[in-house]
Amino acid sequence: MIDHDWLIHHLGLSPTETPYQAFRVADALHQGVGVLYLSTVEERGYPILSPAARALLDRQRHRLHVLDKYARLACEVAPSSQIVKGATIRSLYKNPLCRSQTDVDLAFADPIDLWRAAARIRATDDFSDPDLTLMEGDPSQAYIAFERPAPDIFFEKPVLVELSATPFYGDGRHVSVRAAVPANPLETSLLAICEERFQRAFHLRDLIDAALLLEALELTAPGWATNQSDLLERYALAPELQELWGLAADTGLASVPPIWLDAARRAEDSKRNQGRSPSRAPNLHGLLVDDAPQGGETPFLLERSGEKPLLLTTVGTFLLTSTPEVSTDEVSRARAAVAQSQVIYVG
Asked: Which long-range contacts (C-beta less than 8 Å, at least 24 apart) are formed by 144-153?
């Protein structure tokens, strides 16, 4: 399906285009498309990759190895974990084509698993203090990000491990947070690509990823494409899937979107036009004030009269705030409250 000639065609380039121009066009579209282009040249066998091109591919494959290591560590202690996009999609690419990643995203059906995974990642001592966001202020809808410098800080983004109760955060207007994740990781990844549309336009790699996922879903669950209206209603993503599927079909990667998807899109558009989304509570952001594990595997919310609340977790205690700034006095009082709480980690 996807090879050097196919990619060159869909980049809008001539078959006689120079490798320099082809890579520049691919990389400008998306860093992952540039990496994919180099791997198609590698697969074809000519021209021979330059040392710099080989180094770029090697760096990316090493990064994938590192990200896979952290994913394994998290999944070992979290039975309900799912790898969102990333390795789930990468496994569908034929060798030696390379699907690059800047981070690894994991979603957890069980919130306790999320905090188990967070403790496991934290225990590696590879990362700086984690970032915490409680979506709509709900402790059961946590997002935790661990970040560390890449081996080559000039050419690579920091290594990022993201853990969340859901990858479906909504558009901030008509579509709210959807808490549960599908049981099928292929569905989760397909819908996660659709969710990206709330932030940006789809690009060529999204179309490739979607086509591979649609093919895998039909192979593993024959008849999957017959009707998924209930799934799309649950996740409010019919317009985004119809657009994504249609673009993939335009490139010849996928079949024409089924008729039922148009009806699902119209139903969702109608709901959005009616302003369906209820008012949302603000997100709360967590500032780590103490890195000692506190409480059990379930986070403990410590309310304080006249003060911002604290969240005691397996990776430390966070001062929760919806404001962009926190005073040093607030941090000092929070640390004093942690010392007085006498809650110990029992995990």
From this structure: 144/114, 144/118, 144/315, 146/118, 146/121, 146/122, 150/63, 151/59, 151/62, 152/59
Residue 342 has a pLDDT of 53
- Non-local (6+) Cβ contacts of 330 within 8 A are 307, 308, 319
C-alpha closest to that of 185 among 89, 261, 253: 89
For strands 300-302 and 310-313, give the pairing: antiparallel
Q: In what order do the strands lie in the sheet with 316-321?
A: 81-84, 103-108, 159-164, 142-148, 131-134, 284-290, 316-321, 310-313, 300-302
Q: In angstroms, how far apart are the furthest CA atoms of the chain? A: 71
136 Rama sector, left if φ>0, alpha if ψ -120 to 50, beta otherwise: left
Q: What is the pLDDT of residue 276?
A: 61
pLDDT at 101: 96
Q: HSE of 177 in the Cβ direction (CA atoms, 13 Å)? A: 21
The Cα 238–Cα 271 span in angstroms is: 11
Q: Count the Cβ atoms, other than its own, within 10 Å of residue 193.
A: 22
* Residues 143 and 105 sit within 8 Å (Cβ to Cβ): no
The per-residue pLDDT for range 278-333, each reduced to its tens digit, is 667 889 999 999 999 987 889 999 999 899 999 999 999 999 999 888 999 999 99
Query: What does pTM read for this prediction?
Result: 0.93
How many whole angstroms separate alpha carbon 206 and alpha carbon 247? Answer: 10
15 preceded by cis ω (within 30°)?
A: no
User: How far apart are alpha carbons 256 and 228 in whole angstroms?
Assistant: 15
Collect the ranges in the chain with pLDDT lower than 50.
Answer: 343-347
